[in-house]
Every structure is written in structure tokens, then in C-alpha cells.
Amino acid sequence: MTPGAIYSSLKDRTVLVTGGGSGIGESIVEHFIAQGAKVGFIDIAEEASKALVDKIRAEGGTVHFEQCDLKDIPATQAAIGRIREALGPITILVNNAAHDQRHAIDEVTPEYWDDRIAVNLKHQFFCAQAVAPDMKAAGRGAIINMGSVSWMIGQGNMPGYTTSKSAVVGLTRALARDLGEFGIRVVSVAPGWIMTERQIELWLDEEGEKELMTRQCLKRKLVPADIAKSVLFFASDEAGACTNQTYVVDGGWV
Is there a contact between 97 and 25 (Cβ–Cβ < 8 Å)? Predict the structure, then answer.
């Protein structure tokens, strides 16, 4: 991994990343570590997360992993407390965790709908709520909520996901307004189709790749590092005037 730009304001900061064990989240964790930050991350997948921890520690980075189902809010709050105890007050939050499982309209039950909202939206608010006191005490903070262009382009076959991701915009603007007076910035980053292992294994086929190259202005596949580098900027002091907005990183699809 090449770290790219170095942001001195990120060094020694305590960062919390949800869904940090694989995919985009893993790249975000590694990029913050390369900045000299202390990173705590939460993920439900234990094996992959522990492998990432071992890799980072072997390279001299400071990282702390908590295994947790983010749909369980009390457990999530407790996990954040343990990260704070291990690494110090949290002044950067990246609400990354989500699940884009496909689902047809006629197959959705009320229970499944609530589950999709819980896995894709609900925890973002409660993670922000949990770290806000640290940020207020520090007089600064950055919250980056991961959105998606899926609802912008009208992607089908997963209404629970696209509904949740569109709501991330409203959550971002609400938090930015309420927390701005304390020096806390809140933005959303909306990725396009990012080539994680999961996306490649489950969804990328010849037809999908053809659509990708047709719809994007940039004729290359986007990778997790494209998102991680954007997140670093919005977390840093270089983005000190950026808040209350959604920033699309999709290669020019939308």
C-alpha cells in the first residue's frame, strides 16, 4: 500500500472505523495507520479482523479490534467504550459498515426491512452519539458517514439498502448542524462501484464490467484505496471548512 499524501493533523489521533475488517473498511484502517493514527475498529467478522490486526502490529502500528454485531446497539456502545479505554478519546469516526445484500420487493418482510435499516443506518447515529462527548471535550472532531451512489442512480433489487443509504444524507446534515458549534465536522462520502473482493466474487461479470466502463467518466475500475484516500482528506484539518455535505467518489458515474 502506498499512503499518498501525509496529513500531519492525523498523527496520534484516535480513529474509530466500523466494518474495518475487510473491503473498503480495511483499506481505511490501513491508510489511517500509515498516517500515524491510532485506530480502533469494529467488525462482526473475527478471523479476517484478527489477521488485519496481526499485520498492522507486525508493522509497528497501533490498532485495537472489537468483535461486535453493530445491530446490537448496547454491545456497540460497550465496544466503543473499550476502544476509548485502549486508545484514548476518539476524535475521528468513520461510519463505514453496511451490507448490500440483494432483495426483491415481494420477498421483504417487516422483520427483514428493520434488519436492513439496522445494518445500514441505525448504528451510524448511535456511534456518532457515543463519540460526540470526546469530540466536544477536544473542541474538534470529524465524522465521515459512508453513503452510496446506489440510490442516486436508481439501482434496483435492494430497496432496504438504497433507502438506508439515501437517509445517510439526512443524518449527515442533521448531525453537522447540531454538532458544528462544537467544532465537529460531519460529511458523507458516497462511493460508486468499488472493486472489493466481495463485489468481484458476487456481482462483477462481463455485462457489469461493460456497464461500468460505459457509465463512468473514468475508464478504470475503482478500488478501496480510492475511497480511503478521500476519507483521509475529510478527516484531516485540510478539510477544515468541509461539513454538512455529501461528496461523491464514483469515477464520474452520477
Answer: yes
User: The pTM is what?
Assistant: 0.95
- In this predicted structure, the answer to whether residue 54 has a pLDDT above a threshold of 90 is yes
Tell me if residue 161 is catalytic.
Answer: yes
**pLDDT (average), residues 97-117:** 95
Q: Which of 7, 112, 161, 247 is catalytic?
A: 161
- Would you place residue 3 in the very low, low, confident or very high pLDDT band (cuts 50, 70, 90)? low
Asked whether the beta carbons of 251 and 217 are under 8 A apart, the reply is: yes
Residue 230 makes CB contacts below 8 A (sequence gap 6+) with 189, 247, 249
Question: What does each C-alpha distance from 217 to 58, 152, 156, 206 come to in angstroms?
Answer: 39, 16, 22, 19
All structural domains of the chain, each given as residue ranges with its CATH number in brackets, are 8-194+223-245 (3.40.50.720)
